[in-house]
Design brief:
Order of helices and strands: HHHHHHHHHHHHH
Distance between the termini: 27 Å
Low-confidence stretches: 3-9
Mean pLDDT: 89
Shape: globular
Structural class: mainly alpha
């Protein structure tokens, strides 16, 4: 998931709320579907399926709607960077992490994407100043991440601890992707940008998966095929189109609310389908993360003093 800058003051219409919840459902269920596929498909192969089939669908949308296909070398360098930072690296790290930690915890740590996004943007973009309010939100968010992980669990540095750090590495990659997009993909139609990005990641992941995991096969159990179809076509291709639709209707600040809705959905599905149970600290960490995001956005302070929203 890629998050934009959280600066919108726009109110949310009923239609935008409906689409926002639909997007949260798509992404929330993606953690479960990825974990189901990993029972039969290796990590890199699962990512190759995800980006490859999604790229096919999005190019069909681009060509079907008559959007121009970019041909300049600069834009394809932009696609290559986005394909690595927004797809290949985070999808691979998070899928590997899900082998060793619950899907619900993965979704909670994934919510830190917006926290890292604000921090990275403030360091690399001159127009993204880290104001006192945003700095406070980032600090609260980091305390939430530490609480969800449980710093005592890192002392043993077992596979579970390493998996949590891998998921966080994926969120940092998402944050870097946001900066890269600002620099390299300005002026492109969202559908074209998403199709190009997924094509670039496909060109990396398919040969890499082939070399590491062996030939990619479609001779899979029906359960696995359904899981792959879901996370590639619904939670990636359709979700990207829906993401930009919600962005246009509600603005980037309101779109941040998706982050707060995805984790509860993933937690509930993990508990119902996989029988997962999270430590109480994980829920406390998510609460702090949510508070940090609301402080960054200004909503929490606006409840106390509406004049402070813009500060």
């Amino acid at each position: 998931m890629q998050h934009g800058a959280m600066t919108s003051e726009r109110s949310i219409s009923g239609r935008a709320w409906l689409l926002l919840f639909a997007l949260a459902l798509l992404w929330g269920a993606s953690f479960l579907s990825v974990r189901v596929a990993l029972d039969e498909v290796p990590v890199l192969t699962s990512v190759a399926h995800r980006v490859g089939w999604a790229a096919v669908v999005l190019w069909a949308v681009v060509l079907g709607t008559g959007l121009p296909v970019p041909r300049g070398w600069r834009v394809w360098i932009g696609f290559a960077g986005m394909g690595l930072l927004n797809n290949a690296i985070p999808f691979s790290l998070m899928a590997w992490g899900q082998l060793y930690i619950p899907t619900g915890l993965t979704s909670i740590l994934n919510a830190s994407t917006a926290i890292f996004g604000v921090l990275v943007a403030s360091l690399l973009l001159s127009d993204e100043r880290l104001s006192p309010r945003r700095a406070t939100g980032v600090l609260i968010g980091f305390v939430g991440v530490a609480t969800a992980i449980g710093l005592e669990n890192l002392r043993a540095f077992d596979l579970g601890a390493l998996a949590q750090l891998a998921v966080l590495g994926g969120t940092v990659s998402y944050a870097l992707a946001g900066v890269w997009a600002r620099k390299m993909l300005v002026g492109l139609a969202p559908q074209t940008a998403a199709a190009g990005m997924l094509s670039a990641s496909t060109m990396v992941m398919v040969p890499l998966a082939w070399m590491v995991d062996g030939p990619i096969s479609l001779d899979l159990a029906p359960r696995t095929m359904i899981a792959i179809a879901y996370y590639a076509l619904a939670a990636t291709a359709l979700a990207y189109l829906l993401y930009y639709r919600v962005l246009a209707l509600a603005g980037s600040g309101n779109l941040m609310l998706v982050t707060l809705l995805v984790a509860p959905i993933a937690i509930v599905l993990g508990a119902i389908v996989l029988g997962e149970a999270l430590r109480p600290a994980a829920y406390g960490g998510f609460a702090l993360l949510a508070l940090g995001l609301l402080v960054i956005d200004g909503r929490a302070l606006a409840l106390i003093d509406p004049r402070r929203r813009a500060r």
